[in-house]
Design a protein that fits this description.
It is a single chain. The protein has one domain: Glycoside hydrolase/deacetylase (TIM Barrel, Alpha-Beta Barrel), CATH 3.20.20. Helices cover about 40% and strands about 20% of the residues. The protein has 8 helices and 10 strands. A hairpin with a 5-residue loop joins strand 7 and strand 8. The longest helix has 21 residues. It is globular, with a radius of gyration of 17 Å. It starts with a strand and ends in a 19-residue tail after the last strand.
Length: about 260
C-alpha cells in the first residue's frame, strides 16, 4: 500500500512545521493567498526538504480566501489557471526544481468537481502550460474526468482533515464539525482511506473513496500534529508514503517516513 500525502501551503501558515511530513506541496499562487515573496520562499523550503512542488491556483478572492464561488467565463478560468501555474513554475525552475502537479484551490477546486465547463477550463489551462503535469482533483469528480479527456495524468484526492457526507462530498466548512482537528480521528480516517479505500461519513455511513493522494490543509488548527500522527499510524499499518510522479498517475516511488 502506498499513497501520496499533500498539503496546501504558501497561505500564511506554519509551513515549516508541516512540510517534513508531506511528499507533495501545493503552493498558493498569489491570488487567494501569498505573494511573489511568499511563493519564492515556500518553493525554496519545499525543495530543500525533497518535497514535490505543485501549483495551487485559485480565484482572485483574498477577502474570502478563495473559498467563495465566483462566476466567470470558461475562457477566463482557463487563462487564470494558466497564468498562476506559469508564475509558480518560474519560481520552481529558478530554484533548480521541476513543477510536478496542479491542484486547484477552494471554490475553483469544487467548481471543477461539480461543473463540466469549469472542469474542462482548468484541465485545458494545465494542458496548455505542460501536458506532462499531474492534475489533482476530488476522487471520481468531473475534474478527474476532464483531465483524462485532455490527455493529462490525474491523481484522485481524498481528505484527512475534513468530514464527508454520505454522498461522498465534503461537509461544507460553514457547518458544525466540518473540520477534523483531533489527530487520532484524522489519522484513523487517513488509514481507512489508504488501506480500505473507504471513509465513514458524518452520519455513520461507510462510503467508498479511491485516492492516489491524501490532502492536509495548512490552515487546519494543529495540522502539523495531525500530520505527525498520520505518519505514526501509517508506519504501524505498513502504509508507504510516496510522492506523485509527473506523467505517471498512480505510480509512486517510496520515501522514508521521518522518525518521531
Amino acid at each position: 500500500m502506498s499513497i501520496d500525502l499533500n498539503a496546501d501551503v504558501g497561505e500564511g501558515m506554519d509551513d515549516a512545521a508541516l512540510l517534513p511530513f508531506v511528499t507533495s506541496a501545493n503552493v498558493a499562487c498569489g491570488m487567494h493567498a501569498g505573494d511573489p515573496s511568499v511563493m519564492d520562499a515556500t518553493v525554496s523550503l519545499a525543495l530543500s526538504r525533497g518535497v514535490r512542488v505543485g501549483a495551487h491556483p485559485g480565484y482572485p478572492d483574498r477577502e474570502h480566501f478563495g473559498r467563495m464561488a465566483v462566476t466567470i467565463a470558461s475562457d477566463a478560468v482557463e487563462s487564470l489557471v494558466l497564468y498562476q501555474v506559469a508564475a509558480l513554475d518560474g519560481f520552481v525552475r529558478s530554484r533548480g526544481g521541476t513543477l510536478t502537479h496542479v491542484k486547484p484551490h477552494g471554490a475553483l477546486y469544487h467548481g471543477g468537481a461539480e461543473f463540466p465547463d469549469v472542469a474542462r477550463a482548468i484541465a485545458e489551462g494545465v494542458r496548455r502550460f505542460r501536458p506532462g503535469l499531474v492534475l489533482v482533483g476530488a476522487a471520481d469528480s468531473m475534474l478527474i474526468e476532464a483531465g483524462r479527456e485532455a490527455g493529462l495524468a490525474v491523481a484522485e484526492e481524498a481528505v484527512a482533515d475534513r468530514r464527508y457526507r454520505s454522498d461522498g462530498t465534503l461537509v461544507p466548512r460553514g457547518e458544525a464539525r466540518a473540520l477534523i482537528i483531533d489527530p487520532d480521528e484524522a489519522a484513523e480516517q487517513a488509514v481507512l482511506i489508504a488501506r480500505d479505500r473507504a471513509v465513514i461519513a458524518a452520519d455513520g455511513t461507510r462510503i467508498p473513496v479511491r485516492a492516489d493522494t491524501l490532502c492536509l490543509h495548512g490552515d487546519t488548527p494543529g495540522i502539523s500534529a495531525i500530520a505527525r500522527r498520520i505518519h505514526e499510524r501509517f508506519r504501524a499499518e505498513g502504509i508507504r508514503i510516496a510522492p506523485l510522479e509527473p506523467g505517471r498517475a498512480g505510480r509512486h516511488e517510496g520515501v522514508v517516513i521521518p522518525p518521531g
